[in-house]
Amino acid sequence: MDPIKSFMVPSEKFITVERDMDVQTAARLMRDRRISSLFVTKWKEIVGILTDTDMVRRVVAAGVDTLTTTAEKIMSAPILTIEEDKTVLDASDLMAQKRIRHLGVTQGGKLVGMISVRDILVFLTNLRKK
Predict the structure, then answer these.
(1) CA 123 to chain centre
(2) Which domain holds residue 44?
(3) Which of 4, 21, 79, 125 is the most buried (most CB within 10 A)?
(4) Number of domains the chain is built from
């Protein structure tokens, strides 16, 4: 089976926001870009991930003010990761075990990409077509 690195989103394509961005602006960015996660940075270093699930559970359900709550306050950190040479099955198992939908992909411990449940579904769908 193909390694994760063959279908991950490379770090050069990450959409990032500074940790002090308000969550309303972050949510609009996610909507406009049609993405389910943003990477949160502190002085250009990635410190966490902000997902649509974080938005629902930590903003909407909690009833917090979207203009005064920052990305840093609701982001998931640290980012759970998997090494790039692992398989789709490894990633799927880890996501199921941890109950998450996004995984950072590392090379020698350094973040080089990201995969989501959607990426895995697309990969498997394409695999069935071959």
Answers:
(1) 17
(2) 4-129
(3) 4
(4) 1
Q: Which 3 state secondary structure label does DSSP give 25? A: helix
| d(C-alpha 33, C-alpha 115), whole Å | 17
Helices (H), 37-107: 52-55, 71-74, 88-98
Could you check whether the bond before residue 78 is cis, i.e. omega within 30 degrees of 0? yes
**Lowest-pLDDT range of 14-18, 41-45, 105-109, 120-124:** 120-124
Is the CA virtual torsion 64, 72, 99, 33 positive or negative? positive
Structure tokens at 14: 């990450």
CATH (domain of 76): 3.10.580.10
Cβ pair 75, 48 in contact under 8 A: yes
Span 42-54, average pLDDT = 95
Query: What is the residue whose two structure tokens read 């279908």?
Result: 7
Using DSSP's 3-state secondary structure scheme, residue 112 falls into strand
Q: 103 pLDDT exceeds 80?
A: yes
Q: What's the pTM value of the predicted model, to 2 decimals? A: 0.88
| Nearest to 57, CA basis, from 34, 75, 39 | 75
